[in-house]
């Protein structure tokens, strides 16, 4: 008698099963009629070196994710630990789909190791037509004649100057110095007017790469050498070209025109003091227009101008570098990653609405399209100017392994002891000669082991 309820339950289960099957069959029939079942989107992970979220990248990703449903993109940032995180991920065979090649991780080395793939059709002719003419020239973005990265920013150094401090010193705030001699005089007058409250020039020797900011762009503009003492016209290292400018900054020091603490001053404290109106002039990147407006809320009334050159020289093209280099890794999602890579390159105008900086996509640099009503964009006209910039084809210092201190450290150490040596000029000459010797040896070794092709350093004709 107790089995009847069980039998009844079994009948109910059977009926439910048949009903479910019927519904399933109907559903399958509908799927067959409407096409294959919808697939889940391919997840693409992007890693960048930034120390925090980038609103421009976020905006591009959000736009891409909303406009299609085949690929879903997200990104992560790792700051100072970026290089280590990337290297561990590659070693473990679990890298992201797209990553930034920076922090000592180069496009060329990743390509040689087979960790990234050529961009191929991710870079369309339409995209190429919008780029600064030098964008795709650097050899470091290629391997075996195939392109592996396209930079999105065009970075260069400019003279940033405080217009209010110029006026207070009796200088015309609309006429920044055109020569280094004029800049020295302006720095002296601003310092005198400041009476200890502000100074004429900021020299942050606490920055490891300081001399490539304040010597190399000027030498390049004057046609007397390239970065780090290399001369592409001769194919040799000739650090003697650094001496005149090194002595020039010593003259600023002798004049008392340098902001105090220069020997250990870092770039962030210098920028903070400039933003507060404590420094009349200094040399910094053209990207600072966006940084001062969106991140620092600078109180100073400032503008940007070309870095001055010596009065007996002519200013030609200034050095520039294509920055923010993303690459596509050799992952199973590489084709999906290419789709987003194309969208990323094609939406730099959108990125400039959140961080206005000069871009290799020249249409993004149009001042009329920049968020001037949203931000107090100072130095806009010349910060966004790119017609006087050139990106070098090859820079050997990026591919050599130098023994001993590099040029930057050598010059900073010399600057510190300039007042303590009677025959200081001889010390400078000896140091520059030693740099020639060590950099040349490193260059020759790099050619011998295949890190540098002899054709890459062949003297210009």
Mean pLDDT: 91
The poorly predicted ranges are 1-34
**What is the number of helices?**
17
Structural class: alpha/beta
End-to-end separation in angstroms reads 107 Å
β-strand percent reads 5-15%
Q: Could you estimate the helical fraction of the residues in percent?
A: 40-55%
Estimate the global geometry from the Cα principal axes: globular
DSSP strand count = 14
Radius of gyration (CA) equals 29 Å
Largest sheet, described in full? 6 strands, mixed
Short description:
This protein is α/β, with parallel strands linked by helices.
Structure description:
This protein is of the alpha/beta class and 461 residues long. Helices cover 40% and strands 13% of the residues. The protein has 17 helices and 14 strands. The protein has helices spanning 3-34, 55-67, 82-91, 107-112, 125-129, 163-168, 180-194, 210-214, 216-222, 243-255, 267-275, 288-296, 334-345, 348-351, 380-383, 407-416, 424-448; strands at residues 42-48, 71-77, 98-100, 142-143, 146-147, 153-162, 199-201, 230-231, 236-237, 279-285, 302-305, 318-323, 326-328, 389-390. β1, α2 and β2 form a beta-alpha-beta unit. The longest helix has 32 residues, at 3-34. The protein is globular, with a radius of gyration of 29 Å. The N and C termini lie far apart (107 Å).
């Amino acid at each position: 008698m107790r089995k009847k309820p069980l039998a009844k339950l079994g009948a109910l289960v059977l009926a439910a099963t048949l009903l479910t099957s019927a519904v399933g069959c109907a559903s399958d029939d509908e799927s067959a009629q409407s096409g294959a079942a919808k697939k889940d989107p391919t997840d693409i992970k992007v890693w960048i070196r930034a120390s925090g979220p980038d609103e421009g990248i976020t905006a591009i990703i959000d736009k891409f994710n909303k406009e299609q449903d085949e690929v879903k993109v997200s990104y992560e940032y790792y700051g100072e630990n970026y290089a280590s995180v990337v290297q561990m991920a590659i070693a473990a065979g679990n890298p992201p789909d797209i990553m930034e090649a920076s922090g000592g991780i180069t496009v060329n080395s990743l390509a040689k190791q087979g960790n990234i793939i050529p961009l191929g059709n991710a870079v369309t002719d339409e995209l190429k037509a919008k780029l600064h003419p030098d964008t795709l020239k650097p050899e470091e973005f290629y391997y075996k004649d195939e392109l592996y990265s396209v930079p999105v920013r065009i970075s260069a150094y400019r003279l940033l100057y405080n217009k209010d401090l110029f006026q207070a010193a009796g200088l015309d705030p609309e006429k920044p110095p055109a020569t280094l001699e004029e800049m020295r005089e302006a720095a002296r007058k601003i310092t005198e007017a400041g009476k200890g409250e502000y100074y004429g020039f900021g020299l942050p020797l606490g920055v490891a790469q300081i001399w490539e900011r304040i010597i190399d762009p000027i030498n390049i503009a004057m046609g007397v050498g390239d970065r780090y003492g290399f001369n592409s016209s001769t194919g040799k290292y000739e650090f003697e070209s650094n001496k005149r400018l090194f002595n020039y900054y010593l003259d600023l020091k002798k004049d008392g025109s340098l902001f105090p603490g220069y020997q250990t001053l870092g770039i962030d404290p210098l920028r903070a003091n400039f933003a507060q109106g404590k420094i009349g002039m200094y040399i910094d990147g053209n990207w600072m227009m966006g940084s001062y407006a969106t991140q620092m809320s600078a109180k100073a009334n400032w503008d940007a101008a070309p870095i001055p050159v010596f009065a007996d020289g002519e200013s030609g093209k200034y050095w520039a570098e294509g920055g923010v280099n993303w690459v596509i890794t050799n992952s199973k999602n590489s084709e999906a990653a290419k789709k987003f890579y194309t969208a990323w390159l094609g939406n730099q105008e959108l990125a400039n609405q959140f961080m206005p900086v000069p871009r290799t996509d020249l249409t993004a640099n149009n001042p009329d399209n920049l968020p001037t009503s949203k931000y107090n964009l100072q130095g806009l006209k010349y910060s966004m100017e790119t017609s006087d910039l050139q990106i070098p084809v090859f820079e050997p210092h990026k591919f050599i392994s130098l023994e001993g201190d590099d040029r930057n450290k050598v010059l900073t150490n010399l600057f510190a002891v300039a007042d303590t040596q009677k025959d200081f000029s001889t010390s400078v000459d000896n140091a520059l000669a030693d740099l020639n010797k060590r950099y040349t040896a490193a260059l020759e070794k790099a050619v011998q082991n295949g890190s540098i092709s002899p054709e890459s350093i062949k003297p210009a004709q």
